């Protein structure tokens, strides 16, 4: 036990006053030689991608995993949903864990847990065990995101610390295009187990790397209070119910499953109970008064809308190309473009960072999405990946360009009120990004389904067998199967079935075009809203300067 205690204990460092940790639970900021900074940067990228790929590898390969595990679409959707359920709320406790026990135990315990869970994936054979492992992985993945951010902060000099935050939060965002790029090759080798073996390998590499190069220690203080766990239980349960509804609603359909309504009905009082418990606390997990302030409400609205419109890529463009019969092999070049644009967005965001203008990159990113979505709304059944290179590159760039400034904007507001507000903000930020992403996919997917049904009905009603063009298409379809179907009646039926398939395809394309137009409108409105806020703030600042000058 003494050896384990020594292994988990913090190293003794001597910090200069300017090198002290910014708050309990975060590492100190000592000067490092260039070689050590390079090592910190490499580990940050490794850990960040490990955390991001933990969910991305599953989310982008649900179809293959469903076949391998024998699950239907509604069941397989629970796997990424279970990850988000725990990931969205665990930060409430992780921050206080770091504050009370230090960074070393936090690092080794949660990375060790992640290794064990990745190893457990190899033995998953049934639905419920797969869901349980994904839920536990969500908790470990949240710890990896924080860990990657802290390592990146050590990789850059103190004067570039905010740029390090932008890069550290941006690296996990590159995991999804990276997973789409190479996971098909893994699946070819040994089906779904290859994904879990790759995840295990990354987890072991990360554990070895952080064991060799430790973070500087932090200041510790007693942090946990008994009421924390009651709040967490209520909040986590409510968040899990909302995640389940958003993940499953468009698959089982919103009005066809009674449990959707019961889950939402249960989530509302649970959220209310958590907020009521926190409202009058001296050291709350959720500072309800601050979270309800005007700036934070505006921040929440803008960031949620950003996450929704960014679903254009993950749900919209990829879904359109899949409907048009494009396979993973044919989409590889598009994913290369998306990955390159994502990396460029992280770099550009860090290079152009201006702490006095953190809202401007967010407005620019959402505006770029509006333009790209409007261009994509002219897609046809002849659209192929090459026609989407530019627009999808723009959206991928916007997705990673906005995330860092958005985090810093809220974090700056939290630190202005005191370090106790940081927990509340990080909880809010996790909810916005995780549930916002699920909500965006649910909204976009639902709207596309509704519009597809409307277009399909309109197309079918417009088909008149007596129309010469329709008759020609029916005859062509019958002729296409003439060599294998001898019966004339069956050939005519097959011709009608082929025409019906074409009608469904065209209805889907028109529905995706409608979806892209909806995204363009939402993004444009959000850009205008944010632009109006910036204009009003500029006016107030100019009036204040004139008043000071007059005085």
Give keywords.
single chain; 551 residues; mainly alpha; 0% strand; disordered N terminus
Task: Characterize the structure shown.
With 551 residues, this protein is mostly helical. Helix content is 78%, strand content 0%. The chain has helices at 2-8, 34-59, 62-69, 73-76, 78-87, 91-101, 103-121, 127-155, 161-170, 175-190, 192-212, 226-252, 258-278, 288-291, 294-309, 311-323, 328-351, 359-376, 389-417, 420-462, 468-480, 488-550.
Which radius of gyration do the C-alpha atoms yield?
26 Å
Low-confidence stretches: 3-11
Q: With helices defined by DSSP (H or I, 4 residues minimum), what is the helix count?
A: 22
Euclidean distance between termini CA atoms: 69 Å
Largest sheet: none
Average pLDDT figure:
80
Tell me the overall shape: globular
Proportion in β-strands = under 5%
Helix coverage percent? over 70%
Oligomer: single chain
By secondary-structure content and strand pairing, the structural class works out as mainly alpha
Spell out the helices and strands N to C. HHHHHHHHHHHHHHHHHHHHHH
Number of DSSP E strands: 0
What is the compact description of this entry?
This protein is mostly helical. The chain has helices at residues 2-8, 34-59, 62-69, 73-76, 78-87, 91-101, 103-121, 127-155, 161-170, 175-190, 192-212, 226-252, 258-278, 288-291, 294-309, 311-323, 328-351, 359-376, 389-417, 420-462, 468-480, 488-550.
């Amino acid at each position: 036990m003494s050896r384990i205690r020594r292994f988990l204990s913090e190293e003794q460092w001597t910090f200069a006053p300017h090198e002290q940790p910014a708050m309990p639970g975060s590492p100190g900021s000592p000067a490092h030689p260039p070689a050590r900074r390079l090592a910190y940067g490499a580990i940050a990228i490794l850990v960040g991608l490990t955390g991001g790929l933990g969910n991305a590898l599953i989310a982008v390969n649900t179809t293959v995993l469903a076949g391998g595990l024998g699950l239907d679409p509604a069941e397989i959707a629970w796997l990424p949903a279970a990850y988000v359920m725990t990931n969205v709320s665990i930060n409430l406790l992780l921050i206080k864990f770091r504050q009370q026990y230090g960074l070393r135990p936090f690092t080794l315990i949660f990375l060790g847990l992640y290794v064990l869970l990745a190893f457990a994936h190899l033995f998953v054979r049934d639905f419920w065990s797969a869901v349980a492992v994904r839920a536990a992985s969500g908790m470990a993945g949240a710890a990896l995101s924080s860990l990657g951010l802290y390592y990146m902060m050590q990789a850059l000099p103190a004067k570039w610390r905010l740029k390090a935050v932008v890069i550290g939060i941006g690296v996990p965002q590159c995991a999804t295009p990276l997973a789409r790029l190479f996971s098909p090759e893994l699946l070819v080798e040994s089906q779904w187990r290859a994904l879990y073996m790759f995840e295990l390998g990354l987890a072991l590499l990360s554990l070895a790397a952080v064991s060799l190069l430790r973070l500087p220690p932090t200041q510790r203080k007693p942090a946990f209070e008994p009421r924390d766990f009651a709040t967490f239980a209520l909040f986590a349960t409510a968040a899990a119910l909302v995640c389940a509804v958003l993940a499953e609603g468009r698959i089982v359909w919103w009005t066809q499953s009674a449990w959707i309504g019961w889950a939402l009905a249960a989530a509302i009082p649970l959220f209310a109970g958590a907020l009521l418990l926190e409202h009058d606390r001296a050291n709350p997990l959720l500072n309800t008064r601050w979270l309800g302030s005007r700036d934070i409400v505006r921040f929440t609205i803008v960031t949620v809308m950003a996450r929704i419109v960014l679903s254009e890529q993950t749900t919209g463009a990829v879904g359109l190309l899949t409907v048009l019969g494009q396979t993973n092999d044919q989409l590889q070049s598009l994913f290369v473009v998306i990955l390159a644009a994502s990396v460029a967005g992280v770099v550009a965001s860090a290079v152009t960072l201006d702490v006095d203008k953190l809202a401007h990159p967010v407005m620019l990113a959402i505006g770029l999405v509006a333009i790209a979505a409007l261009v994509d709304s002219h897609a046809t059944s002849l659209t192929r990946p090459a026609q989407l290179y530019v627009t999808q590159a723009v959206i991928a760039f916007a997705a990673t360009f906005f995330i860092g400034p958005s985090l810093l904007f809220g974090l700056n507001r939290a630190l202005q009120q005191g370090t106790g507000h940081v927990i509340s903000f990080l909880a809010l930020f996790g909810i916005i990004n995780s549930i916002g992403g699920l909500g965006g996919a649910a909204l976009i997917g639902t709207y596309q389904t509704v519009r597809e049904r409307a277009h399909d009905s309109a197309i079918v009603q417009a088909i008149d067998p007596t129309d010469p063009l329709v008759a020609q298409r029916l005859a062509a379809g019958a002729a296409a199967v003439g060599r294998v179907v001898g019966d004339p009646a069956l050939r005519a039926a097959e011709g009608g079935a082929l025409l019906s398939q074409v009608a469904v395809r065209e209805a889907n394309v028109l529905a995706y075009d409608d979806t892209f137009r909806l995204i363009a409108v939402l993004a444009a409105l959000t850009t205008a809203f944010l632009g109006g806020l910036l204009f009003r703030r500029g006016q107030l600042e100019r009036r204040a300067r004139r008043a000071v000058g007059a005085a």
